């Protein structure tokens, strides 16, 4: 086994070494998961529900420690990290109801009784990115376990620590041994093995569109089920009739939260031309106000980027000052700091079309509703977006016309665990969260029982 040194992105100091799984270790873990799954699926629904509630209670008791660990590993501001750990608890609590509510149907037919069952798939492989390690893990493992599956999870190499801790918490809370395992390792080794090992029946992948496409192509070989949550370049559309002060004041949080390393980041602000200058005047002080700094500080709103490599990648999008309208502040010295940056490129410039995944936002003017919609849709991505207007009819028209899975009007909220989440076009395939997520970890079986007529 090789190992990997986890780095604190706020200090560039080594945190710990993590042992990496190889192909053989991955296969062993998958075999153990398969054994555990058969026993788990046979347990009474009420017992599975109680075990998941116990898991949620154990996460609740550990929220502060999980948050501190995420801050250390990923550089997330501590307040945000606490929210993330609490979200894991809430997702587990929500799906703990599912074992007792996975209803099939009884369908009227002639000659007998027809019923459907939602059968667990078996072992599910979850592959997570580094931007929201805990929450995205929970979106996969909680509904999958609730539907009677086992889960093997590969965290992103840079950010494995909170996922590893969640697996320990699950075991301590009474999850059967082997049912939920976290396997740190390279994507091309452990992640790829989830795709090629026949015992894994479904892969849930969150990450880049490029890797997602490879996983989808490879999964075809075994007709393996996939859910893909991929990239985004979401639009924040500001109409002249909106509450412009509110739209400008909230725009920085809509894109710079988590240092812009958010698949739902509203990284293209589109502003109706008649209010463009006024909007920029309001945006500049709002960007200057973003508190960038030590993620352990309660007042910090934005921490560092996740790694030196990612810092170099984000920096490559701003090679010179020609597109820069203005910037916020950032610390200097050790740490992968990047100041919130506002660009005013042309419509076809790379900064206006590619996902940067850092604290960089582009602002473009538009002329009227049709132009706003066509500009918003001029991308192969379609994950989220916001629409700012006081006109209800326009809010509905534009919401229906924008090709994206998660839109908000006069708000930047994207994620509630009670509502479905996922992308249009090349932003993904399938949906996570919401009441139907457990069903996506099952196959529907139809059983017909012949019954003789009353004689
Ligand atoms: P990534 O490079 O695609 O990696 C994601 C995960 O896949 C990591 O665990 C990675 O392992 C693994 N991986 C890499 N190559 C693989 C392969 N050949 N087979 C199987 N697994 C493989 O993405 P990222 O840079 O971590 O994350 C950023 C991207 O994720 C952005 O595009 C963002 O928009 C997207 N994202 C989407 C959502 C959503 O819900 N739609 C949410 C968050 C992020 P390693 O760590 O070893 O590379
Ligand atoms: Mg990557």
UniProtKB/TrEMBL annotation:
Organism listed in the record: Agreia pratensis
Pfam annotation, one family: Aldedh
GO molecular function: oxidoreductase activity, acting on the aldehyde or oxo group of donors, NAD or NADP as acceptor
Active-site residues, as the UniProt record annotates them: 229
Keywords, sorted A to Z: Oxidoreductase
Stored InterPro entries: Ald_DH/histidinol_DH (IPR016161), Ald_DH_C (IPR016163), Ald_DH_CS_CYS (IPR016160), Ald_DH_CS_GLU (IPR029510), Ald_DH_N (IPR016162), Aldehyde_DH_dom (IPR015590)
SUPFAM superfamilies assigned: ALDH-like
UniProt-recorded name of the protein: Betaine-aldehyde dehydrogenase
Domain of life: Bacteria
Family: Belongs to the aldehyde dehydrogenase family.
Domain Aldehyde dehydrogenase: 4-447
């Amino acid at each position: 086994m090789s190992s990997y040194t986890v780095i604190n992105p706020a200090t560039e100091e080594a945190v710990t070494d993590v042992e990496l799984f190889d192909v053989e270790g991955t296969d062993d873990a998958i075999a153990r998961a398969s054994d555990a799954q058969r026993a788990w699926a046979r347990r009474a629904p009420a017992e599975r529900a109680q075990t998941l509630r116990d898991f949620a209670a154990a996460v609740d008791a550990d929220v502060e420690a999980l948050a501190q660990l995420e801050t250390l590993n990923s550089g997330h501001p501590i307040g945000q990290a606490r929210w993330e750990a609490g979200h894991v608890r809430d997702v587990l609590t929500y799906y703990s109801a599912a074992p007792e509510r996975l209803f099939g149907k009884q369908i009227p037919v002639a000659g007998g009784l027809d019923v459907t069952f939602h059968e667990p798939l078996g072992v599910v492989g979850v592959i997570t990115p580094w931007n929201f390690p805990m929450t995205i893990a929970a979106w996969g493992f909680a509904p999958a376990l609730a539907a009677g599956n086992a889960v093997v999870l590969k965290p992103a190499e840079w950010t494995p620590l909170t996922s590893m801790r969640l697996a320990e918490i699950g075991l301590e809370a009474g999850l059967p041994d082997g049912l939920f395992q976290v396997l740190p390792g390279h994507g091309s080794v452990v992640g790829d093995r989830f795709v090629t090992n026949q015992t894994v029946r479904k892969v849930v992948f969150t990450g880049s569109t490029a890797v997602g496409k490879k996983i989808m192509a490879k999964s075809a070989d075994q007709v393996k089920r996939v859910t893909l949550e991929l990239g985004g370049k979401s639009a924040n559309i500001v109409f002249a009739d909106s509450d412009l002060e509110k739209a400008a004041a909230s725009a920085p949080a809509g894109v710079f939260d988590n240092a812009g390393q958010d698949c739902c980041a509203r990284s293209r602000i589109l502003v109706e031309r008649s209010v463009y200058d006024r909007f920029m005047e309001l945006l500049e002080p709002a960007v200057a106000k973003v508190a960038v700094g030590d993620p352990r500080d309660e007042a910090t709103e934005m921490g560092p980027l996740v790694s030196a490599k990612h810092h170099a990648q984000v920096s490559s999008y701003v090679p010179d000052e020609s597109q820069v309208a203005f910037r916020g502040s950032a610390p200097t010295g050790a740490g992968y700091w990047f100041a919130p940056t506002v660009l005013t490129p042309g419509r076809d410039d790379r900064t206006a079309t590619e996902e940067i995944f850092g604290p960089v936002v582009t602002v473009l003017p538009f002329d009227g509703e049709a132009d706003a919609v066509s500009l918003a849709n001029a991308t192969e991505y379609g994950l989220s977006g916001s629409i700012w207007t006081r006109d209800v009819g326009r809010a509905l028209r534009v919401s229906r016309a924008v090709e994206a899975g998660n839109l908000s009007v006069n708000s930047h909220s994207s994620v509630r665990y009670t509502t479905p989440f996922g992308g249009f076009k090349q932003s993904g395939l399938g949906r996570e969260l919401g009441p139907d997520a457990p069903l996506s970890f099952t196959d529907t079986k139809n059983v017909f029982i012949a019954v003789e007529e009353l004689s």
